[in-house]
Design goal:
Elements (H helix, E strand, L loop, with lengths): L5 H9 L11 H4 E2 L2 E2 L11 E6 L2 H4 L18 E6 L14 E7 L8 H11 E12 L5 H15 L12 H10 L3 E14 L2 H10 L15 H14 L8 E13 L18 H4 L10
Parallel strand pairs: 3-4, 5-6
Antiparallel strand pairs: 1-2, 6-8, 7-8
Helix pairs in contact: 5-8
């Protein structure tokens, strides 16, 4: 039997929430245990174009029924395109999309400013770019453990993790490529693992290995074992039975320019000085 509380989740996924209103009467929206099909798409998106250079990744969810109902009842018209994200220009005319979404892919791009310029080109005026990517403070425990172990055994260090973007550079990248009203937020996530080896296995299966050209071809087993011991000693979890891995996720949103967007006033047009707006009183100022 379906729980009544599941309707809120289903409504969000299937687009039953329209015009900022969520109808919570499940009897009016369910037919045979499923959401009645409507014309509003999923989350307000009626047509979706998915682009990826890897065909297996792009089609990995084909036939997967996330709702428990017939997959053909999906109300969002979806197109899948296998293409290289860094081969410009893309096969889309100028001003094609209202929204471009990127989830944890920007850190694999070699020329990120050029990619942002291409995204800006295919966006309509006042179109939105929404993205998430791992930040520079991702996996510091693994990075430092490998560095310490490699220094001890080889006398030098090499790259072991993919390069990540520092959060302080994201806003400059957006404004430098012509995006307006950028907003950046950061989330810190901690995940527990039994040991460093399990963490590295998960990273490998996620495809998040080291892709740097200048990486060392082979790292000795002793370096990995030493790094695992350093990791266990320096970064244990609260129970002391495993280790902690930290990830920094950067969220960003920005818009393509449009005349309707708010703009700053011209420099020098202020009618009041800062001393008139805010006055700081010290302890002896009233004496």
């Amino acid at each position: 039997m379906q729980r009544r509380g599941d309707f809120v989740w289903r409504a969000i996924c299937d687009g039953a929430a329209v015009d900022d209103e969520l109808e919570l009467d499940s009897e009016d929206h369910h037919a045979g245990g499923g959401i009645v099909e409507n014309n509003y798409g999923r989350g307000g998106v009626r047509k979706l174009v998915q682009l990826d250079s890897c065909r297996e990744m792009l089609h990995r969810d084909v036939g997967y029924d996330c709702d428990g109902d017939n997959a053909s009842n999906a109300v969002c018209e979806t197109y899948k395109l296998v293409a290289d994200e860094e081969r410009y220009p893309w096969s889309f005319p100028d001003g094609t999309f209202d929204l471009v979404i990127s989830s944890m892919t920007f850190h694999w791009v070699n020329d990120l400013p050029k990619l942002l310029m291409e995204i800006k080109r295919v966006l309509k005026p006042d179109g939105c770019l929404l993205f998430a990517l791992p930040g520079g403070n991702t996996l510091p425990e693994l990075r430092s453990s490998l560095v310490l172990s490699e220094l001890e055994r080889t006398g030098g260090v090499s790259t072991h993790l993919g390069p990540y973007i520092d959060v302080s550079n994201v806003g400059g990248l957006l404004t430098g490529t012509g995006f307006q009203l950028p907003t950046v937020d950061v989330d810190e996530i901690s995940i527990g693992y039994p040991n460093m080896m399990v963490l590295m296995e998960h990273l490998n299966r996620m495809g998040e290995g080291n892709a740097c050209k200048a990486r060392r071809e082979r790292v000795g087993l002793g370096t990995f074992l030493g790094a695992a011991c350093v990791y266990r000693e320096l970064y244990p979890d609260e129970e002391g039975e495993g280790v902690v891995a930290s990830a920094q996720v950067i969220y960003g949103i920005a818009w393509k320019e449009h005349e309707s967007q708010q703009k700053p006033l011209q420099r020098g047009s202020a009618t009041k000085s800062m001393t008139e707006i805010a006055v700081t009183k010290t302890r002896g100022s009233e004496d």
